[in-house]
Amino acid sequence: MIKLNIWISKHQNKITAAIAILIALSLVSDYLIKLPIAATVFMIVASILGAIPIALHAFSALKNKVISIELLVTIAVIGAFIIGEYEESAVVTFLFLFGNYLEQKTLEKTRSSVKSLTKMAPTTAELVNDDGQTETVDVDDLDEGDHVLVKPGGQIPVDGKIINGTGYMNEASITGESTPAKKGIGDKVFAGSLTDNGTITVETTSVGEDTTFGKIIELVEEAQDSQSPAARFIDKFATYYTPAVLIIGILVWIFTQDFPLAITVLVLGCPGALVIGAPVSNVAGIGNGAKNGILMKGGNAVDSFAHVDTLVLDKTGTLTTGQMSVTDVDNFGEDKESMLGLLSAVEKTSDHPLGQAIVKYINDLGITKTPKLPELDTVKGQGLVGSMNDTQLLVGNERLMKANQVEITTAQRKAIDARMNDGDSVVLMAMDQKLRLVVGVNDQLRPDAKSGLQALKDAGLKRIVMLTGDNKVAAQRVADRLPIDEVHAELLPEDKVEFVKKFQKEGSTVAFVGDGINDSPSLATADIGVGMGTGTDVAIETADIILVKSSFKALAHAYVLAKKTTANTKENIIIAVGTVALLLLGLIVGVIHMGSGMFVHEISILVVIFNAMRLIKNKPAKLDSNQVLKPADQLR
Amino acid sequence: MAKAILQLGELTCPSCMTKIQKAVENQAGVSNVKVLFNAGKVRADFDESQTSAEELSNVIKDLGYEVLKVKVKEIA
């Protein structure tokens, strides 16, 4: 029985093809050869052949106390058979099976984005045995503590720590960052990432579904199945709907004594498009997101995000990258290029984040000629001191300058104050007690913050609010460059939660965007928490939506996608309900029969799937340069 | 207790999902059954003294679905 069952499901498509041929033969016999007996025989064989797989499904469901669509079809087909409508019964089984086949093919498409993600999961590993020999094993057979060898260009099969070797790791599948990161002994590596070069040995810390990559896949898989409220309603509805149709069919038979009508009701009552319409939109929408670095945790998240009208943002690490960069340089020396070359040489000796930002800035200007320097002394909390050709050299903050009696002119004072008013950290360079350079350094704004936020507003977002623990000047400075409506500064994490609650009380649906760790209370309180993903477990667990690539373009795409997915779900429900209504009308008027009813049904299922598939192709919107270049005040 | 993860062949009808869900749930010692329709996976916790992953896999095969891979994880 089990074997027969599986054999039939495996060969269902061949059976469907055989039925199609039989029906064709029957039609040929009937109309061309004029052999009605042969035609009838072909139809009978086709009906029986088609009814077997359907009836088996119906029976196995019934054994588990589930009344399935297959049961309705089976009863209808047997009924048609009894009254001698072999043509109808053959056509109905064929359409039902063929519909299944098409459903399967099209569903494969909607699932393709997640499939491609799963395919990236490692399957085998080079296990290093105690004697130093390696053998290829299935990743499932690995345990914590096992040592695995990864060759250049190879995929890292587990989460773990490097215990031997160094190499460049491409971790795009985990962090979305495509620039390879150099990693050596003691560094953590992630399953699913690739080594660009270098052979490494990794000590396993987690395997398979416990790895970060495994968790991402699991999350997406569960998200596609966790249903939106609409889908859940439909699902519940369907569990009562199918038995109800059966009862209605029986009632129709009892009261009208019209057996053909009763079995037609059974066929027409199949809830095909209704059941598949809402979930298929979600699968397509979430799949599209996953492909674009957006993890949406299920239909609920999609639905709520589509209704968001207020976006609340954290500043540091969210709107800004958390990385320092030079904002402005004022030169009071003679030759700016040689001054900067000297500054770069000094800062190269420092591993302070400000210093690194300055070196990068000067390198990017193309200034690579730097003088040789003598030993420099570090003055804690102030900067660096040294001397060169009897010239005293100071690089550091204002306190260092004061301590060394550097005179500051009115113009220089103005330059320093301007940087400080912008909320910058200021780095000064003096030679022989004369100030030569004033450099402002600040946290870098994400390059797509402005265009992304503007795209969100264009998509119908009403209000963007920035909350930050930073000082007011620095906060306002960031806000002025962006289409932000409200700024609240100098806040503690609990103050941020209060703001979110306040907006909710005012009747807004709030999305909170944060980096997931210190913002977790706000992420949890908001209607939708959006995590700027760094691929950490914390971010994955707290947020409803995770932006793997930490980009605002992705956020805007997610918002548009959520709206489109919700609209798509509604369209599908309307199509499905509309079909049933039309069929009933057709039945009453008398234009719809069993075969044609089934045909319309199958068409409606395909229509909802194709409608959902439009969501897969939806690409992140390109921003036109005009929009991006608009001055900030015009944007508000 | 242990957790079984069964990878099935492609699932295409939502009613298959209800069927599998109920059939697995009805086994003795099984709790927390989750059928992932799109991923074609079944996850279930079970009491090893009452049933086995092998048995759960047979239940699903009995319904007419292919079971491609069975994984078992010990849980506390």
Description:
The complex is a heterodimer of chains A (636) and B (76). Chain A is built from 25 helices and 22 strands. With 636 residues, chain A is an alpha+beta fold. Among the domains of chain A are: 64 residues, Calcium-transporting ATPase, cytoplasmic transduction domain A, CATH 2.70.150.10; 141 residues, Rossmann fold (3-Layer(aba) Sandwich), CATH 3.40.50; 123 residues, Calcium-transporting ATPase, cytoplasmic domain N (3-Layer(aba) Sandwich), CATH 3.40.1110.10. In chain A, the strands form four sheets. A seven-stranded mixed beta sheet of chain A has the order 10-22-21-20-11-18-19, sandwiched between helices. In chain A, a hairpin with a 5-residue loop joins β1 and β2. The model of chain B has no long low-confidence stretch (mean pLDDT 83). Chain B has one domain: 2-Layer Sandwich (Alpha-Beta Plaits), CATH 3.30.70.100. At the A-B interface, α1, α3, α5, α7 and α8 of A face α1 and α2 of B.
